[in-house]
TrEMBL record:
Source domain of life: Archaea
Organism from which the protein derives: Thermococcus aggregans
Name under which the protein is recorded: MFS transporter
UniProt keywords, alphabetically: Membrane, Transmembrane, Transmembrane helix
InterPro entries assigned: MFS_trans_sf
Alphabetical list of SUPFAM superfamilies matching this protein: MFS general substrate transporter
Length: 132
């Protein structure tokens, strides 16, 4: 379910590259509303199981430190993404950049699915076995 939601979320990002064309200017608001609603739905299907798995896997003694570092890394990704995307928007059109980044995200997700599916799906399984 986790990977299905991840792939669905990435596929929902592809229409963002279409919204930037002037042809869709009048419908852009409604298109964005639909896209972001779908992203919010799939984001919930990804984050809840993932965070639950991490909470089960991380020992109580270090959970606070782990999640503070985890959240800090996630928060640092936003300005780094803007620092990379800003100059790229000077070179490429927005639709091309979005389509390229979504395609790269899809390829990275497929790679992780092929190589790390069992590892990711088994996070926290050891804890369940110990608890009975």
């Amino acid at each position: 379910m986790l990977f299905k939601a991840l792939f669905a979320e990435i596929i929902c990002l592809f229409p963002l590259s279409v919204v930037t064309y002037p042809y869709f200017q009048k419908a852009a608001y409604f298109m964005l509303l639909g896209i972001f609603t779908a992203l919010g739905f799939f984001n919930t299907l990804i984050n809840v199981p993932l965070i639950t798995k991490l909470q089960k896997a991380v020992p109580n003694e270090v959970r606070a430190r782990f999640f503070s570092a985890f959240e800090t890394a996630l928060m640092a990704a936003t300005p780094l993404g803007m620092a990379v995307a800003g100059p790229l928007l000077d070179i490429l059109e927005a639709s091309t950049l979005v389509a390229t980044l979504v395609a790269l995200s899809l390829l990275a997700s497929i790679y992780c699915y092929i190589n790390f599916k069992e590892t990711i799906m088994n996070i926290g399984a050891e804890v369940r076995e110990m608890m009975g």
